[in-house]
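Hey team,

Filing this mostly as a record. A colleague (T.K.) asked me to run one chain through the structure pipeline before their review meeting, and I want the input and output archived in the tracker in case anyone asks later how it was produced. No errors, nothing strange. Just documentation.

Input sequence:
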Amino acid sequence: MEYIDQIWAYIEPVWSWLMAGLQYSMHGDGGSINWIFLGVQMGVIGLVMALLMQEYAAILIFTVLAAIVHVIVDVVLPMVRDGASFAIPPVTDMLYWQYIAFLGVAYLVGLTVLYIIKAIVLPR
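Output structure:
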């Protein structure tokens, strides 16, 4: 267990930084995280990206593409669902960039897992 404690000492600041970014939520009410919406949105985008990915060598490209699609959905969905006016994301806010970094890490891990499952279930 002491090895895990030593490793966690290095991982914990990065983990805390990413989780602080997760507190940014365009679909939350008062800063709370809408876990169901976030999970469904990330699941659908991740599944589509994993199915489109032909080789694992393209993981970084598809991770960036998935994060971009996620941000576009975050901006467009309130306009479609609630009739809200267009709002540019707060690109000068550090919390927003932490949110983008969280999306990147989450999609990198998620696409890796989904690609492995796809390679097992759908062999060439």
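Quick notes for T.K.: The mean pLDDT is 88. The CA atoms of residues 19 and 102 lie 7 Å apart.
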